[in-house]
Specification:
By secondary structure, this protein is α/β, with parallel strands linked by helices. The protein has six helices and eight strands, in the order H-H-E-E-H-E-E-H-E-H-E-E-H-E.
Length: 213
């Protein structure tokens, strides 16, 4: 009888200790544990041509990363949306107060490592403009380019002015980059997004600067 009483006391005391931990800290700890145990499950994804596009992680871990990124971004830290992931392709649902917050939200999510694409069909904004979907696609692309700069080795965008404009789902790229290889990598990155039906690249090669003494 004493043995069962001791076990009950231990469990009760454990729950008491957990109740003292702030919710935000407990969420962060649980996310860290998930990431730790999910690390061996990472797998590489191969695209056409035998080139490795990106790594994937368990969807539950990626979603936790996204929620943390939203919480840590000042302009959208109070925005409440539902985020889901399937094979690292993200779906966002809910209502965001303003267009600027919706754009910032999508760009922030796109910048999270391992995110492949974002679908915003269920994301609404009160009194949204007719071109909201185009604005969100542009935000997704800009975030993806930044993500590849930070985490990937596909694109070197240091001091490269790339302009992205989306009209009726068609993405137009303008600007000058260093090489044809950079153009190809940027275009392929966008073409792999299922939310983008067509990409028209008007990117050019910037002339090399020659110094003469």
């Amino acid at each position: 009888m004493m043995k069962y009483h001791h076990s009950f006391f231990s469990i009760t005391f454990l729950f008491f200790l957990f109740s003292l931990i702030p919710t935000s800290l407990l969420t962060s700890l649980l996310s860290s544990v998930l990431i730790l145990f999910a690390t061996p499950l990472y797998a590489e994804t191969t695209v056409v041509g035998g080139q490795t596009q990106a790594q994937t992680i368990p969807d539950v871990v990626l979603v936790s990363h996204i929620y943390m990124a939203i919480k840590e971004t000042p302009d959208i830290s109070n925005v409440t949306v539902a985020v889901s992931s399937q094979d690292n392709v993200i779906s966002v649902a809910g209502t965001v107060p303003t267009v600027n917050e919706a754009i910032k939200l999508v760009e922030t999510i796109a910048m999270v490592k391992y995110v492949k694409d974002i679908f915003t069909d269920q994301l609404t904004v009160p009194q949204a403009p007719d071109d909201l979907s185009d604005l969100l696609i542009t935000a997704d692309i800009k975030g993806a380019i930044i993500r590849e700069k930070i985490f990937g080795d596909k694109i070197n965008i240091d001091q490269i002015p790339i302009n992205v404009l989306t009209t009726q789902g068609i993405v137009y790229l303008t600007g000058a980059v260093d090489s044809v290889d950079q153009i190809n990598k940027i275009v392929v990155l966008i073409q792999l997004m299922k939310s983008v039906p067509r990409v028209i690249s008007m990117l050019t090669i910037q002339p090399s600067t020659v110094y003469v003494n």
